[in-house]
Amino acid sequence: KMAADTSVDILQKVLENEILQSTKVVEEHLDAEIQKLDQMDEDELERLKQRRLEALKKTQQQKQEWLSKGHGEYREIPSERDFFQEVKESKNVVCHFYRDTTFRCQIMDKHLTVLAKKHIETKFLKLNAEKSPFLCERLRIKVIPTLALIKDGKTQDYIVGFTDLGNTDDFTTETLEWRLGCADIINYSGNLMDPPFQSQKKYGTSFTKLDKKTIRGKIYDSDSDDD
After folding, report:
1. Segment 193-199 long-range contacts (CB within 8 Å, at least 24 positions apart)
2. What is the model's pTM?
3. Separation CA 59–CA 159 (nearest Å)
4. Which of its termini does the chain have fewer beta carbons within 10 Å around, N or C?
């Protein structure tokens, strides 16, 4: 018993010593940083300030460039020809292939409107699938809604219906944001290993039915039985 107590005491002392050592290292590092700032002369401080300003200016210029190319808002493009032009001039593009009569497209619209404002590094577009048969065939779009995720002019990934979004009509904007982050089409600051829909209490409760399979290459809604 006594030997066990002694080993626990030794362990405790070792642990306390470790904590003290790491605290000391942090304090020394902070002291060194403060000292470095204290020892900087006017010129060095000015140079540091200039570097910060340059970085800010660069960020601002990039932002302006994105906005001039139509980033920052969720827009409808009128034709397939416009699609090629829009995709050519932006590195990251999300294009929603929609149909007026499809209820789930309106749900997607709501979330994309929010994300377009938040992620101006990416261009968010929508295109009527019925007006773009060539693109739908070329990109093999069979179910509506489908999001085509395009990087450097090449389609990298698709979000088809709501299957990847927790299989529910009331998925959150954060869930769609996470899925776009997985495709590296936006700058995502959350944890990709932790999908937001896992923590939703109503997981999958209001999902009506599974996305329909395509028959003979026809395009189907993911939310209705009628054509």
Report:
1. 195/166, 196/172, 197/165, 197/166, 197/168, 197/171, 197/172
2. 0.71
3. 30
4. N
Cβ-contact 126, 83 below 8 angstroms: no
Decide if 109 contacts 115 (C-beta within 8 A): no
**b/e sequence 18-39, b meaning 16+ C-beta within 10 Å:** eeeeeeeeeeeeeeeeeeeeee
How does pLDDT run across 6-33, given as a tens digit for each residue?
A: 777 788 888 888 888 888 888 888 888 8
Is residue 68 within 8 A of residue 120, CB to CB? The reply is: no
Q: Treating both helix axes as pointing N-terminal to C-terminal, what angle do 103-118 and 173-182 enclose, rounded to 10 degrees?
A: 70
Q: What is the pLDDT of residue 1?
A: 57
**Cβ atoms of residues 94 and 146 within 8 Å:** no
What one-character DSSP code corresponds to residue 210?
Answer: P
Q: Are 142 and 217 in contact (CB under 8 A)?
A: yes
Cis peptide bond prior to 133, omega within 30° of 0: no
C-alpha distances out from residue 81 to 132, 134, 146, 154, 185, Å: 9, 10, 19, 16, 22
Domains and CATH numbers, the chain: 73-183 (3.40.30.10)
Give residue-wise pLDDT tens across range 175-193: 999 999 999 999 999 999 9
- The list of the chain residues with pLDDT below 70 reads 1-5, 198-227
Nearest to 84 by CA among 148, 20, 17: 148
